[in-house]
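Quick entry between incubations.
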Amino acid sequence: MAQFINTTFCTNCNHQSSMFKLLTKEELERLNKRLHEVRFNPGEIIFKEGGVLTHFGCITSGIVKVYTEGFNKRNFIFHLLKPTSLIGGPGFMDDNRLHYSVAALTSVTACFIEIDAMAEVIKTNNRFATEMFKMISRQASVYMDKLVSLTQKQMHGRIADTLLYLSAFVYESNEFTADVSRQEIADLSAMSKESSIRILKEFKDANYISCNGNDFVIKDLKALKKVSQTG
Amino acid sequence: MAQFINTTFCTNCNHQSSMFKLLTKEELERLNKRLHEVRFNPGEIIFKEGGVLTHFGCITSGIVKVYTEGFNKRNFIFHLLKPTSLIGGPGFMDDNRLHYSVAALTSVTACFIEIDAMAEVIKTNNRFATEMFKMISRQASVYMDKLVSLTQKQMHGRIADTLLYLSAFVYESNEFTADVSRQEIADLSAMSKESSIRILKEFKDANYISCNGNDFVIKDLKALKKVSQTG
DNA sequence: CGCGAGCTTGACGTTGTTCAACTAGAGTGG
DNA sequence: CCACTCTAGTTGAACAACGTCAAGCTCGCG
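Done. Structure below.
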């Protein structure tokens, strides 16, 4: 049964991403009129690649994966997003199509803002436009780094990167219960599921991390960083 | 001996990139005051990664490679640029640093525009800002595709991609004299020089291409595209 | 208890890198 | 004009990295 959520008004939204803080009350109210909120269960697809980009998404709770269906039925995960990240990126103001899929890893709530409303605000609010600019620009820069890491480092370095990424950017803690499966850790690190498992075990044996099931503890940050750098 | 070039005025520049056509005469003249043109020899470095991003570059003749120094002294080439591409991308309006190096593959002339002048025009001209936005956005999208291709395809598919890229986007012809070395073809395809040579030879033996030295002819486009897709 | 999904492990084959030797052509100096 | 050197290209053989396959395991759930 569909759940229609009473949209939290942006104006009092406590998830307000830094970008939206730049908007005036009037602008926020304008966005508000063309916005709705949706709740997703773990595993559900939020955006499907190839589709038309009609809305920007803003994660208000939970974690999602941004991924694409690659070759030979292997997925590639670009990154994970948590509140209050914006989803839209490439395609916006260009071909207006979705260049990737987005799926919920946990229970997720997300707000959807019509593309046109977004474009309007960008025209009227210069600082907001600048922030959007920065956001996409940073994204490109992240992808550049990933290109180099994933093509030049070997598996140990790539898994170390993924662990550091989870700990530093996603869960912001040395201990976390991962919402990603082993397969998804592999999809983040561009390798097979079996390889990711083997390397995780090696790190565990070397006492760099401890992990049972999905509970991870980074025990030797320096060692991991060293592995990440030496490739 | 340094060569100081009399700057061609943007207003009558026949290399004018599509983006600059959106500017008014006044805006172009404003840019013009804060612009200079430089000539480079093959192999010379135009931008060095890590440096401060003080100027945008616009290639007016020749071909450059946009690359980064990866791990183990291996380079990775993101893409090649020809007139009239803009160089600047990530870092602009953000940390103002160069996230990659740029070097001349042929003799190159390039115009340099002060960052601040560029930022001003972006503020005053909305359509120009939108084009910049699209440009970065497309870049991100290209990087996403590359991420998947380079991590999931194997060598034959990657070399096929590089050949198709050179033919379709760089030289815009089925026959071309490449300005890239075998090493650089390898750096574009994320593999070792030896491997790239071997695969090129296989393609030659299979009569997909002919190549002696740096003269390439794409003889069987369909076959190459098929190799690119099957990975 | 049985079932299924995700996880784990080992054996094996493939893919791709590294190393080392060799070639060809382009410059350089005697 | 001939060594000489230097660089880019080429080739083969050995080796390491990584994926695939197949089997077994664990745990939650009906």
